[in-house]
């Protein structure tokens, strides 16, 4: 079935719902008639059928925000969308994008973009140069290689022209230099040397080319996550977290310092970012939602009993362009469960955490006031993760109160008897409890 026909189904459903709502008075028989597609729809479908060779197969991008096999974008800035059809054919350049433009009330194929590769990786439409309309940022996968192929195309007068072409491991579309045009930040990782580079491509003097570079931390294994956001209130940046060693994550922060593109966190002595977190899956994020991205640092907590697992607090710091951090917030961050608890600063030097399995459907995290190795910790509050059909009932029994529900898990809390618990209320604990946001690109917390 054509993607256009699949798109038409929800539109038809919407029209049918409007008719059934009573907004229009029509004979009963007409309420059950299928909505007729517009002439433009059929014209475009016919143009696509005529243009694509017999061996062509629809092949939408595998990642990114635009994954449909047929997409619409105003490439030339004339106020009307062009249609782009992503297909895979045979031959030396099997990946093809067929571009259709509206001419005299009908669609005509005007250009074909051809390229090597096994699949389209991603596509975005953004203003790059000084002309009206959107440019095409296109990534292609090259067999099973880590490096992929990225091109930028402009489209005008029925012709697509390539503005740049390079290899990449990952990329981001950004505007770090604040010139109101979108630029491309390329991350390229060399598998043999284990050295990675960030390359900044921007449009200037009629051409788009690499203008500045900065190093990633050396000896990284793979880029795990890329976050864009502000380093400070008025300076945008890109936060690149990679696996490092056997059990660590390292985050490089890229931004412009004055007119120079640089890695703000790279140590000149070690060649590795100072933002290193071991044995813990936690990524840069705007933890306090103030518009600035914070970076995590771990602080070990004393164990409630000898031999128990070590638990950690995560202290979150914002950066200045000189790499100096400012502490913003402290949390207990439980990535596997997808939740975290904001920890008052008065607790941080007298807190211990323990985990117990109450039964097969109840996992409990107890936050207690630490008074010494030979002293019994005093419970401040406990967080419960409850499953089972009666989870909501159990979440509001035996002194517990409901914090929220996610999927088949209900979260609840109960106050303890410590002096620190006397300052808490159900409302304040509700405000302390948060869900970890899911990264839309990876699907991970």
UniProtKB/TrEMBL annotation:
InterPro entries assigned to the protein according to its UniProt record, in alphabetical order: Integrin_alpha_N
Name of the protein in question: VCBS repeat-containing protein
